[in-house]
Amino acid sequence: MDVVRLRRVSKRYGRRREVLADIDLQVAAGELLALVGANGSGKSTVLKLMVGLSRPSSGTVRRNARVVSYVPDVFTSHDRLSASAYLRHMGRIRGLSARAARERSDELLDRLALAGGADTPMRKLSKGNAQKVALAQALLEPPQLLVLDEPWSGLDATAHGTLSELLTETAASGAAVAFTEHSDHVVRSTATRVCKLRDGRLQVESTPTGLTEITLTAGHELDWTTQPDVLEVRRHADGVTLMLPTGRHDAALLTALNHGWSVTTVRQVRPE
Question: Could you tell me which residue ranges the ABC transporter domain spans (predicted)?
Fold first, then answer.
């Protein structure tokens, strides 16, 4: 099911040239879409259109999501509140109980390893730590559509991996996730689909270059097409062969073993 869909979308500011031209793009539930391209190619504009912060000059944007979360490329932190107080306040605004807001904000800040701890005043946070608060804010309530503009920017190495885990978990829960990123390694290890923009036009749609092929011998009945991150299922006499993004195949292996399947081979491949 498509959570957000752009149909023949163009965007123009005043008399300037079009920022986007005739874009057709959709993001489905459970998908992790990476938008790549040079600065000025229109990536951030696409994200703002997805969440409703901008309107198209022509075309349509349809969202099938009640909870939409957005992380901008620059997060303006609050001067007076601590990171924990700010997140608890935002959680209450979103309808969480005081206890749920406190527990969820503490959990997220702990996973992201906020420097100085949850009581650190926002005004003292570095860019990378302010980004951690922005990420935590977006995930306080499980989103159905999560959109992030260069979310890895400024994060330390440990938080890089944690963010990838959080996005994968969010998609696995049924949300649609779209993000921009310059790092080819991050895109390959996180995205299930990659779209490239150049001069406001959608040029390429592909699966990441890093894929893992898993061959399984039949066990208990299981519909592999519904499993998170499974991009392709090829059935054969003895079982199935699955294609998944490299780095996100552990869950499939665990599911196979828990359902009595035997793992024959696991190997990295490149799509043709």
Answer: 4-224
Between vectors from CA 140 to CA 138 and to CA 144, what angle results, nearest 5°? 65
Partner residues linked to 234 by β-bridges: 241
CATH 3.30.420 fits domain 211-269: no
Residue 263 · residue 253 · CB < 8 Å: yes
The pTM for the full model equals 0.75
CA angle 177, 157, 212 (to 5 degrees): 55
Using alpha carbons, list the distances in angstroms from residue 10 to 60, 93, 205. 9, 34, 18
Task: Locate the domains of the chain by residue range.
Answer: 211-269
Query: CB count, 10 Å around CB of 112?
Result: 23
Q: Which helix (H) or strand (E) holds 61?
A: strand 58-63
Q: Dump strand ranges (E) for 65-217.
A: 68-71, 145-149, 176-180, 193-198, 201-206, 211-217
